């Protein structure tokens, strides 16, 4: 499994005022955004391509990650305004994900497990 989608389109209202100027997925935890931590975990499990399903403040996320060269994975973007939820995000990412199994993560969740071990299960 070399692909993943991270749902990154929520408003982050419960994290205000932190999310007044950045999306909730870019809120830093110990100096690194939550979503960057997720991408690094996915990369360590062999993921080479990540789709970021963005909506709110998508320009900030795109400016941070660009095409993924800084983090070492290829990053694609899909977007919808207003956000249409999980099903809408998956439908928009269908062309990137259709030929393989993939990980799907919510971008505002702090993870601390080995994604490679998860694949073995």
From TrEMBL:
UniProt domain Nucleotidyl transferase: residue ranges: 3-120
Name of the protein in question: Nucleotidyl transferase domain-containing protein
InterPro entries per UniProt: Mannose-1P_guanyltransferase, NTP_transferase_dom, Nucleotide-diphossugar_trans
Pfam families: NTP_transferase (PF00483)
Positions in coiled-coil regions: none
Gene3D superfamilies named among the record's database cross-references: Spore Coat Polysaccharide Biosynthesis Protein SpsA, Chain A (3.90.550.10)
């Amino acid at each position: 499994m070399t692909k993943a989608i991270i749902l990154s389109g929520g408003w982050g209202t419960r994290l205000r005022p932190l999310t007044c100027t950045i999306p909730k997925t870019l809120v830093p935890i110990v100096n690194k955004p939550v979503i960057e931590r997720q991408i690094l975990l996915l990369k360590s499990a062999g993921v080479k391509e990540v789709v970021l399903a963005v909506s709110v403040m998508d320009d900030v996320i795109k400016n941070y990650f660009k095409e993924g060269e800084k983090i070492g994975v290829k990053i694609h973007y899909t977007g919808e305004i207003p956000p249409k939820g999980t099903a809408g995000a998956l439908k928009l990412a269908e062309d990137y994900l259709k030929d393989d199994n993939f990980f799907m993560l919510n971008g505002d969740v702090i993870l601390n497990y080995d994604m490679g071990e998860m694949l073995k299960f």
